Amino acid sequence: MAQQVEVLAPPNMQSSDGWVAILLRFSREKPLGAAGAFLVLAMILVAILSPWLAPADPVRTHVRDALASPSGQYLLGSDELGRDSLSRIIYGARVSILVGFLATLLGTVVGTLLNVFSAYKGGWVDITIQRVMDVLLAFPTLIMALAIMAVLGPSLRNVIIAISIPFIPRAGRVVRSAALAVKEQQYIEAARAVGASQWRIVFLHVLPNCMAPYIIVATAFLGTAILVEASLSFLGLGIPPPTPSWGRSLAESMEFFNSAPWLAIFPGIAISLAVFGVNLLGDALRDVLDPRLKRL
């Protein structure tokens, strides 16, 4: 009697099919979140492919073509120095993506680690760290970033530092509340009973169970980081020229707004779409990952 042999798909293919099914279900149940993810992905691709997508050198000047209106030669017009506005917007996405992701990653990771450790240790360690967090929370994000940039001076590294520091207490407080609940669970007590070290408990048991609020907070702060970077560049404290930046493009357009409104309109649209897409994705992830809401 012949035996039936069941042919199983390779593990990688099964995993791929699982991710495809999850993405399709997410798109069906959270269409706005899928639209936000599409905008974020499009911005990332524009930033990566900017050398091939930009029709011209973003810093090369053509004085004879200064303030040219949108046309076949300059699809989005040119600025007061004759630089192609479309190329500067495309290359400006690189600054927004780099600063936004690095500042968000640095601020949220540091804030999460500090506050998870603070919640687990408790006592005077928790009191000391939380009082420092209270001091940092007393300053609005943009005001603190402006103060830090005024001290450090404009540069890419300083912009990332200036934006990440205000995120530390804001991200940490959300994750700390989750850590306080996790450390009271029975499996934490079991880990202590078998002699697990504090660091092992924090990194292998407490921290992984705080990832859902961390992802939600990090996604929400990404839009804020992009907006703060644009604000710093608008005020002249962001990435130094001639590096293209959406915020600087807005600042440089103010003097010529009546005669060349496209200089402000198109960078403004780019900033709005980037922040809007990140916020849509963050709201959808919150609905999916928040255990108090219906899970995907």
Walk me through the structure.
This protein has 296 residues and is an all-alpha fold. It has one domain: MetI-like fold, CATH 1.10.3720.10. Helices cover 71% and strands 0% of the residues. The chain is elongated.
How are the SSEs ordered, and which strands pair?
Layout: H1 11-29, H2 31-48, H3 50-53, H4 85-121, H5 123-137, H6 141-152, H7 156-182, H8 186-193, H9 198-206, H10 211-234, H11 246-253, H12 262-289
Helix pairs in contact: 1-2, 2-4, 2-12, 4-5, 4-7, 4-10, 4-12, 5-7, 6-7, 7-10, 8-9, 10-11, 10-12, 11-12
The ordered string of helix (H) and strand (E) elements is HHHHHHHHHHHH
Mean pLDDT figure: 84
Distance between the termini: 45 Å
Report the principal-axis shape.
Answer: elongated
Oligomer: single chain
Q: Specify the number of helices.
A: 12
CATH class: Mainly Alpha
Number of strands: 0
Radius of gyration: 24 Å
Question: How many structural domains in the coordinates?
Answer: 1
- The residue ranges in which pLDDT falls below 50 over 5 or more consecutive positions are 1-16
